[in-house]
Specification:
single chain; mainly beta; Immunoglobulin-like; Protein Transport Mog1p, Chain A; seven-stranded antiparallel beta sheet; six-stranded antiparallel beta sheet; 2 helices; 3% helix
């Protein structure tokens, strides 16, 4: 159905459709000499346009007057280090524009009605004078017959783009993003296009290797985190396919915090009736959110999720579907159907509150066999390679040293005798994770429901290790014990006698198996 414009009395009203497309989806392939849709060039990654930042970018005379330019195409696609959004126009020039972040609620120009845009950050693209309908003739001519709602094939940060205005020569689209990241803007000729490139990482410069990363190293152990505060409302559930992992996002509204439990089950059943739940795929990952309000109890102005029974996503073979079960006594259960049992990572994000579950494409351990389990009296259990040696506990607590070779732990020495070391330190988490000289990379994540940080560092020669020695360290915040603050620290160091790269991969796999409620102390 063609969008209708009613001309007269000095104003016009646009009837916007946001359901199924009224015409075939516009191609993501480029027109003209400037590529805007291919994932990368033949020889090297396509660089992002403009000077990426998070501040508003505005053409000098925005909003300009005059005869409107007519929109002919809208498209979005993922590239190696950024996602691209393009508006294409008839004629030789792009009208004046403004591109910048806006805060929800997102409303439609003219009507003022609230429009749902999936995402956690919202980038608004405004162009003036412009329209998708030509009113210069006797009859309205629709110049853009495409979708009012579209996704970015192969993208990593664009959740969806939604037309939010075509009113009085002001055209507006709002791009929903996974997170607030830098963006660049430029115009291109032949045909006239406004191009917005959204980087894949918050602090990125668009260089290679800057893709969105999973929220943790991944593991197969159950994750359980308790709820706090007043009940909250589930407002959105969405899926995303990314490089190396698939993402499930549960968005919530309210002052309290939802709890969550995530773990594999061989017998998915409805929590209300106990009846079997049909889940596509060969493995079922159960996800239960707690401390939730019924949709009818949602506060005024908060729109609950519509409760679709099954969600699927294109572009992945790992996540077959997400099946919603029931919201029963404050608990909402879901089952992620996977192609096989794979590592997963879970965390909570804020502003807005989200529970994020990342399912990694790799098999558990990335080919590393963790056939042994060790339980330490310090209060944790961890899997390790079955052929590795583990200390028995005579000098330091058991299950705190791991190495592919046999070793002895001498008394009262700092000599590094094992490839990987675990310890529970009576030191505050914030102090352990303070930035130090030589830090190369830092990633915040969640390990077994606890706040954690992974830090890569190269020694400067001022500490224990020789200059240039690489290390990877995990720090996990633990509940305070009788002696005060506690932090679990696990690391591997690239000394000449150790296989640093291989040991770092083993450490990552081990962290994914940590059970921080095991043991006999603390």
């Amino acid at each position: 159905m063609m969008r209708l414009l009613l001309a007269g009395l000095g104003a016009s009203t646009l009837l916007v459709t946001t359901g199924s497309p009224t015409a075939p989806a516009p191609s993501v392939l480029p027109t003209g000499p400037h590529p805007t849709g291919a994932l990368r060039t033949a020889d090297q990654p396509l660089p992002p346009v403009g000077d990426p930042g998070t501040g508003t970018v505005e053409d000098g005379d925005f909003p300009a007057g005059g005869a409107p330019a007519h929109l002919t195409d809208v498209r979005a696609a993922g590239h190696e280090t950024f996602d691209r959004f393009v508006l294409e126009f008839e004629g030789d020039e792009v009208p004046s524009y403004r591109v910048g972040y806006v805060e929800p609620p997102i409303t439609e120009d003219g009507s003022g009605r609230e429009i749902e845009v999936a995402g956690s950050a919202f980038l608004e693209v405004r162009v003036s004078p412009a329209s998708g309908v030509d009113l210069s003739g006797e009859q309205p001519r629709e110049t853009y017959p495409g979708r009012d709602q579209l996704t970015a094939p192969g993208g990593q940060v664009i959740t969806e783009a939604v037309r939010t205005g075509d009113f009085e020569s002001m055209l507006a689209w709002t791009v929903g993003l996974e997170e607030r990241v830098p963006f660049g803007v430029t115009t291109l000729p032949d045909p006239a296009r406004l191009v917005v490139d959204v980087l894949h990482r918050p602090g990125g410069d668009g260089g290679s290797g800057g893709g969105l990363e999973p929220v943790g190293p991944g593991g197969t152990a159950d994750v359980d985190v308790e709820a706090t505060g007043s009940p909250v409302v589930l407002t959105d559930v969405r899926l995303g396919a990314h490089d190396g992992f698939d993402r499930i996002v549960f968005e919530l509204a309210g002052e309290g915090e939802a709890g969550y439990g995530v773990g594999y089950t061989g017998d998915p059943r409805s929590q209300g009736s106990g009846q079997p739940v049909q889940v596509p795929g060969d493995a079922a990952l159960g996800i239960t959110l707690t401390n939730l309000l019924l949709p009818g109890d949602a506060p005024e102005g908060v729109r609950p999720w519509d409760g679709r029974e099954q969600l699927e996503i294109a572009g992945t073979s790992t996540l077959q579907a997400l099946v919603a079960d029931t919201l029963f006594e404050g608990r909402y259960s879901f089952f992620a159907g996977l192609d096989q049992r794979r590592p997963f990572a879970v965390t909570r994000l804020s502003d807005p509150q989200r529970i994020v579950v990342d399912v990694l494409d790799r098999e558990p351990g990335t080919g590393i066999s963790l056939g042994g389990t060790c339980t330490s009296p310090a209060g944790y259990a961890v899997d390790h390679p079955s052929g590795w040696s583990v200390n028995a506990g005579e000098t330091v607590p058991a299950c705190s040293r791991f190495s592919p070779q046999d070793f002895d732990v001498p008394d009262a020495t700092d000599v590094r005798v094992a490839a990987i070391a675990f310890s529970v330190e009576s030191v505050a988490f914030d102090r352990v994770t303070q930035e130090q000289p030589g830090e190369q990379a830092r990633r915040e994540l969640t390990v077994d429901g606890r706040e954690a940080v992974r830090i890569e560092r190269t020694a400067t020669g001022q500490g224990l290790w020789p200059e240039g020695t690489p290390s990877t360290r995990y720090a996990v915040r633990l509940p305070d014990g009788a002696d005060g603050s506690r932090t679990l620290v696990a690391d591997t160091v690239g000394l000449p006698r150790f296989d640093y790269q291989g040991n770092a991969a083993v450490l990552d796999a081990m962290i994914g198996t940590l059970d921080l409620d095991a043991g006999t102390e603390g």
